[in-house]
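ARCHIVE CARD
Drawer: 12
Card no.: 0347
Subject: one protein chain, sequence and derived structure
Cross-reference: see card 0346
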Amino acid sequence: MRALDTMEVANVFEDKCRSSVSRPEKPTAGHGCRLHAPGRPPSRSGARFAVCLGLILICTGCNRGAEDPKAAAQKGQAAPLPVTVITVEPQTLPVTWEVIGQTQGTREVEVRPRVTGILLERLYTEGSFVKRGTALFRIDPLPFQTALEQIRGIVGQAEAELARTEQDVARLQPLYADNAVSKKELDNAVSAMQSARANLFSARAQYKTAQIDVGYTSIAAPISGVTSRAAVSEGSLVNAMETLLTRIFQVDPLWVTFSFASKDYSQIQSEIAAGRIELPPERKFTVELQRQTGEFYGRTGRLDFQDTSVDPKTGTIQARARFPNPDAEILPGAFVRMRIRGAVRPHAILIPQRAMLQGPGGQSVYVLTESGKADLRPIVTGQTRGENIIVVEGLKAGERLIVDGVVRLRPGVPVQAVPAPAADAGKPAAPGTAPPQKGAPEPPNRKR
């Protein structure tokens, strides 16, 4: 037979008592019903009811007394808190720097007139691609042609004077040999001949200059590239070497200039020296260009220059990337975003940011010890990568990191490990999709 608990015993006694009360006594023959007079003892049914009531109270008190020690024992032994953990695993992570730069042509030329005159016509379409030597503007050539004809006459006179003086010298030389003329007369003739020859040289130089000026009335493109708008209109007076007519940009290849702080450069050098960053072979970084629309340019570039000094005014270092641009898809003057790839972080530890605590003493995480308790561990962090962050110091490979439930924990509290989901944030993003890191790249091979 199974043992009855306290409540079952109490219920049985209560049922019996109620049945005794509800069953009336049989009257004695000839006397009828009895009534209890005041001060007389109660009947047996009343005594039974009192006994049953007492037993119920005693059993109930015993039941409560039996439950209290058990509840006290449960309160004294706290159950381990369930937490989500991941195993710390070093991995090789790509390093990406993001910078903002401005596009510019590899050659940018300002087209200015080389002679002063009236601009007659514009011979090109603004914004079009032109080849070197293509005529762009024409200045009124008539004044220069007239000057050329005038100087041509001066050259003729100089040639005639030289011929006359040469004849005089040729005539006086035999006479001087026969002592028919003096030495002075011959010397004067020779001097006149030399002066006439010098005048001829000067006249010919003026004539050549006039020819050049006539040629300068037709203004041609000095390089091949994309033209800008015309700065002056036809009929305007343009001054030699002063008036800006237009600009030409050589956009293939295209340059993108940018700058980065010298502090970032020093930090990267320190990480390279510590072995936390490895550079690509021959320091050939790959540069991706993002258009203003958010799309990436279809061709990649290379870093080809870095300045050897820091700008004292801004505290930055200038650098440049080079992109092929055969179809002139990217125009000069635009601000673009670039991602510099190629370096990696070997043996990097990446953890979810939600596992990290921020306190007065800095950043820390909870690590699950071998004894099943939470251990508070201070850490030093590096760059962020989306929802994750790189831990530089404080964690080792193989340790179990608590990532969820850290707010409820205290150092030394017993915890129960629950494996993290397969898609937890402890793993890096796919190559090419990881959020970039702002900073400066390691300098490429400098051009001397």
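Annotation on reverse: The CA atoms of residues 36 and 43 lie 8 Å apart. Residues 84-91+347-419 form a domain with the conserved putative lor/sdh protein from methanococcus maripaludis s2 fold fold (CATH 2.40.420.20).
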